[in-house]
Design goal:
By secondary structure, this protein is an all-alpha fold. It has a domain of 217 residues. The chain is 78% helix and 2% strand. A two-stranded antiparallel sheet has the order 1-2. The protein is globular and about 75 Å long. The protein starts with 5 loop residues before the first helix and ends with a helix.
Length: 494
């Protein structure tokens, strides 16, 4: 039956369709092809979540080769949640892209844009579903190489510099990951992650395994932009096309965090990762630094995309903070914030895409009095900003409530204080935008602009609506996250 091949179709559909977009000469045809595939991928993601909820972990052997000799796709509840995040964001941003890239990308590059977008989508989904360590590296490179191209398609020359900077950092990260995987294979003789975890107990005390752990942890940390390895992220988000910034902010770093979860809990186990290697304490310190330092830097940014980029570094800190607790409540809180932040930050970047379409700029000084001319766009930005701060009735409040609860449960009350302080810093930089758009008068010579088109506003408001729905009823997301955290903790205890 077709339903048994859904894990493979999840990756094969966008991967096989990507070259078709390059062959389609008319931009609208390429957009329609990519849009259709993205919504099919979302439908498959929903079916996979239902399957996992009903029957438990899905194991799919590629080419009917039995594991661990063959390549395995493996999806548990944590993987199902990540698939849903990536597929949802991909399906939401593509309707937005149809109008947005007409201004931000040259017409002759439209086919290339949609090709790279589908390749990136396939790579991110492949990272989540694969149960093979080397294939994880392969899919990571597929998503990364296509990301470099997507960033370079930005409308200014600085996009090329940002893409090159990301390429250099990404290559270093990928090299570290490959070295770590090679060392693991050398000692265990297998690349299947479940098989590696079972064989590691015999060689866990060796220096080689500790070196392998260090290499893959640092490599993945570069990919997910963990402070202070985040230097590629601000320029990449700032100078990439608006739709690319929205897609990356909601998916790329989140998938990196998922890989870190897999390594710490499924492959190496809690005992090795958090007790022998003390990664919990290290990650906790880096997460706390990210929350405070990145939020402070965001306050002083005049380019709103760069402001949100530094905000993303801080929000990654929140997620890593939950994971560093290595408890069921902490991991669940981190995963809840991972899901919620994907919705929030994507909506905020889409709002900025609407502003850039009309103003040709997202500099704070150019947004004076903008709320009167683009009320729906600015309302979406304010709503997303409230969630970023963590006000009640928003998904951001739910995330921070669970994070504070997990920190207090484990006796880390200073972390709860840091979460609240970082939220106050978020209030400051969001208020700067609100004050400029709502309470300042447009300067002389400012262009008369009109509201963004519905095709761009609707995707942003769909995410804002989901954000408020979760703020009122978080039972579904919380239930999935706690179930996923329970599975990861169970896998990590050996």
């Amino acid at each position: 039956m077709l339903s048994t091949h859904l894990p493979a179709l999840q990756v094969v559909l966008p991967l096989a369709s990507a070259p078709v977009c390059l062959l389609l000469r008319h931009p609208r045809h390429a957009w329609a092809c990519a849009l259709t595939i993205s919504w099919l991928v979302l439908a498959i993601a929903v079916m996979l979540v239902q399957q996992v909820a009903a029957t438990g972990t899905i194991s799919y052997a590629i080419g009917a080769w039995a594991t661990p000799w063959g390549i395995e796709y493996r999806i548990d509840m944590a993987g199902a949640l990540m698939i849903l995040v990536v597929a949802t964001i991909g399906a939401v941003v593509l309707p937005f892209a149809g109008r947005s890239i007409q201004q931000e990308i040259r017409k002759k590059h439209s086919g290339l844009f949609y090709t790279c977008f589908l390749l990136c989508l396939a790579g991110l989904l492949g990272i989540v579903v694969t149960g093979d360590a080397f294939n994880l590296f392969v899919f990571l490179e597929i998503s990364s190489l296509s990301s470099y191209v997507l960033i370079s398609l930005g409308c200014t020359r600085r996009a090329l510099t940002a893409a090159f900077q990301y390429l250099v950092m990404g290559t270093i990260g990928a090299t570290f990951i490959l070295i770590g995987v090679g060392l693991l294979y050398m000692l265990t003789g297998t690349l299947n992650m479940v098989d590696i975890s079972q064989r590691l107990t015999e060689v866990a005390d060796t220096r080689t395994i500790r070196v392998a752990f260090a290499f893959v942890t640092v490599g993945v940390s570069i990919k997910l932009a963990l402070f202070p390895l985040h230097l590629w992220l601000p320029n990449a988000y700032t100078f990439a096309p608006s739709v690319v910034s929205a897609f990356f902010a909601a998916t790329a770093t989140k998938v990196g965090i998922y890989v870190l979860l897999r390594l710490f809990f499924t492959v190496f186990g809690i005992g090795f990762s958090f007790v022998a290697m003390h990664v919990g304490e290290i990650m906790m310190l880096l997460a706390a630094a990210a929350m405070m330092v990145a939020s402070l830097v965001a306050i002083f940014q005049n380019n709103v995309k760069r402001m949100l980029a530094y905000s993303s570094v801080a929000q990654i800190g929140y997620i890593i903070l939950g994971i560093s607790l290595a408890s069921r409540d902490g991991v669940a809180a981190g995963m809840i914030h991972l899901f919620n932040h994907a919705l929030i930050k994507c909506a905020l970047f889409l709002s900025l895409g609407c502003i850039f379409l009309r103003l040709g700029s997202v500099e704070l000084q150019d947004m004076r009095g903008l709320a009167k001319r683009m009320p729906w766009t600015m309302a979406a930005f304010v709503a997303g900003g409230l969630s970023l701060i963590g006000l009640p009735l928003t998904s951001g409040f739910i995330s921070k409530w669970y994070l504070v609860g997990a920190a207090l449960t484990d006796g880390y009350w200073p972390l709860a204080v840091l979460i609240l302080l970082s939220s106050l810093l978020a209030l400051i930089y969001i208020w700067r935008v609100v004050e400029t758009a709502y309470f300042q008068v447009p300067g002389a010579g400012m262009p008369l602009v009109k509201e963004a088109p519905a095709s761009m506003l609707i995707p942003a408001w769909l995410l804002i609506g989901a954000n408020f729905y979760i703020g009122v009823d978080a039972s579904l997301v919380s239930g999935i996250a706690h179930q996923a955290a329970g599975i990861l903790i169970e896998q990590g205890v050996r």
